[in-house]
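Appendix C: a fully annotated inverse folding record. The material below is reproduced so that readers can follow the format used throughout the book. The structure is listed first as tokens, followed by the designed sequence.
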């Protein structure tokens, strides 16, 4: 191999030191070596071994500054661009994972000029040269290395880019050439941010006396809310299931006396490509014994504060505000609202009780009928034929039949085909309820309570996406809240009950008395952490009583005894061996980043 300059000794010493360190590790593993022995036998790192973190190069493309003026350097990276000036000077930009550096070629060195001329962009190039300051007035403040440039003394092309340069980088092309997309600054920054956040979460939990425990990926099939990926085995008819989460494992760890567990866990769910879901994802999984919901929340608040700080950002101070599921659904139509933009839902049932507008009129036999609406400031221009189909589609996805769209004109009058069916009192009531101003947009839905609120929640999200940049810049950067007291059960398509969270979630103590008589109104000890309208994590206090856990699975969820034994027997057996009260949470690492 061809080795340059003084890097041979450094590389050789580094390898020798690694071998000596490995020998010490083996001694530590297989021999009763004392701490004193390890200290005296451990390798001493010489200054020669610490000259450069990158033996192949002296510096990265993102670290040279005025301090290195006049120094000889070696850089290696991808050829980012080439510029030729009329005077014969040729400038190149060399890029690696750490940044970019401007390279200057000597116009009298024909060999170097010919090499660069024949080298495609995105080829890997090795440069030897000397650092010099850029001429006065030519510094680039947008580059960390913008005060200097490297004058080339030697240049080598170590690997040529052999494919055609891609001129149009659309989404399909980016996915097809993902390795090239990864070279870009945006994705490089994302990867580093994810690494920093992961490390911050780990350190925050270790500092709170949690221990990291790995759990198996291959598990038995158990219903936890999504379809599973099955893995065939060599035994005919036998399969493993990839874990949807380490939920049951970590509960058994609590019974095993671990008390404070965490794991950066890979999870697998076959959810059919939903917009905010992936078939495999990573979560920061946490469980703790002898705790209340507030104990878990206090721990996780510190974790997310550290995660934000690792990226140079600041969240509002802890404790974060806490709101109930019922409150956010009533006010915002969503269990994960972004509350920075107002637009609270207003109940119009009484104000429009006598309206002649048939789409908003109550049906005689409908006891769950309601009329509700929102007002979006300054979005009156969305009340046109081109945008209306998008509004109606969002409303229908929420479960209602559609939305009434009304604009407020410059004179403060309501503008919509439906307005002719409103009385003057009803018009005044709408303007007064929303405190509507010229240029505003009013959206109204009617029907059963839950679909109406859900539709308005989706319309809120649509309106937020239409606000101009000036509005987005005027609100606080982060809106953080805990959403608590979710329903324990919901009605499934077969008319039975399903768990809203998962079947191991404990009911709220004040609701246990309603389990037999009114299970749909039983609230659970579940909680979600919501930031800017995104649920970044969720958790709950678990059921630790084996008899009550069996009742939930059998009586309320309708799972037969034989199936319970087959799918959950291991967990119930663990709970029978003295399970401590416990709870936990998982943060979606992808959503967090």
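Designed amino acids, in order:
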């Amino acid at each position: 191999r061809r080795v340059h300059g003084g890097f041979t000794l450094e590389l050789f010493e580094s390898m020798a030191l690694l071998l000596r360190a490995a020998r010490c590790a083996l001694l530590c593993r297989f021999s009763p070596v004392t701490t004193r022995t390890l200290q005296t036998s451990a390798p001493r790192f010489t200054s020669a071994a610490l000259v450069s973190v990158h033996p192949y190069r002296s510096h990265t493309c993102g670290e040279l500054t005025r301090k290195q003026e006049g120094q000889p350097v070696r850089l290696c990276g991808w050829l980012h661009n080439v510029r030729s000036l009329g005077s014969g000077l040729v400038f190149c930009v060399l890029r690696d994972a750490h940044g970019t550096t401007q390279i200057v070629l000597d116009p009298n060195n024909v060999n170097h000029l010919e090499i660069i001329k024949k080298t495609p962009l995105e080829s890997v190039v090795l440069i030897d040269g000397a650092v010099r300051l850029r001429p006065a007035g030519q510094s680039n403040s947008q580059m960390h290395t913008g005060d200097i440039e490297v004058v080339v003394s030697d240049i080598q092309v170590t690997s040529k880019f052999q494919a055609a340069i891609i001129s149009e980088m659309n989404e399909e092309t980016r996915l097809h050439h993902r390795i090239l997309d990864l070279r870009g600054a945006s994705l490089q920054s994302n990867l580093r941010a994810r690494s920093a956040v992961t490390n911050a979460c780990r350190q925050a939990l270790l500092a709170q006396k949690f221990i990291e425990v790995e759990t198996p990926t291959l598990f038995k099939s158990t219903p936890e809310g999504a379809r599973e990926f099955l893995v065939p085995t060599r035994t005919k008819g036998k399969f493993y299931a990839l874990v949807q989460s380490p939920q049951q494992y970590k509960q058994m760890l609590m019974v095993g006396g671990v008390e404070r567990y965490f794991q950066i866990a890979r999870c697998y769910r076959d959810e059919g490509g939903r917009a905010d879901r992936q078939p495999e994802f990573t979560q920061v999984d946490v469980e703790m014994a002898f705790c209340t919901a507030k104990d878990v929340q206090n721990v996780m608040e510190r974790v997310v504060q550290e995660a934000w700080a690792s990226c140079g950002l600041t969240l509002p101070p802890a404790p974060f505000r806490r709101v109930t599921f019922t409150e956010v659904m009533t006010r915002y139509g969503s269990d994960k609202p972004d509350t920075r933009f107002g637009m609270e839902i207003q109940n119009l049932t009484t104000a429009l009780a006598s309206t002649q507008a048939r789409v908003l009129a109550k049906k005689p036999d409908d006891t769950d009928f309601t009329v509700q609406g929102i007002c979006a400031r300054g979005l009156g221009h969305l009340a046109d034929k081109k945008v209306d189909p998008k509004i109606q589609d969002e409303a229908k996805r929420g479960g209602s039949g559609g939305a009434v769209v009304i604009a407020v004109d410059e004179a403060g009058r309501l503008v919509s085909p439906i307005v002719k069916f409103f009385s003057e009192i009803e018009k005044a009531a709408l303007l007064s309820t929303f405190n509507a101003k010229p240029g505003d947009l009013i959206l109204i839905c009617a029907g059963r309570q839950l679909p109406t609120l859900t539709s308005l929640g989706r319309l809120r999200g649509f309106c937020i996406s239409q606000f101009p940049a000036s509005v987005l810049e005027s609100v606080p950067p982060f809106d953080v809240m805990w959403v608590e007291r979710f329903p324990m059960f919901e009605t499934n398509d077969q008319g039975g009950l399903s768990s809203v969270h998962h079947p191991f979630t404990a009911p709220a103590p004040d609701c246990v008395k309603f389990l037999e008589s009114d299970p749909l109104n039983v609230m659970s000890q579940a909680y979600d952490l919501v930031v800017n309208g995104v649920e970044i994590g969720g958790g709950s206090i678990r059921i630790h009583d084996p008899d009550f856990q069996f009742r939930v699975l059998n009586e309320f969820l309708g799972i037969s005894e034989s199936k319970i034994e087959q799918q959950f027997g291991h967990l119930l057996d663990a709970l029978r061996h003295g399970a401590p009260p416990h709870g936990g949470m998982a943060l979606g690492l992808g959503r967090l980043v």
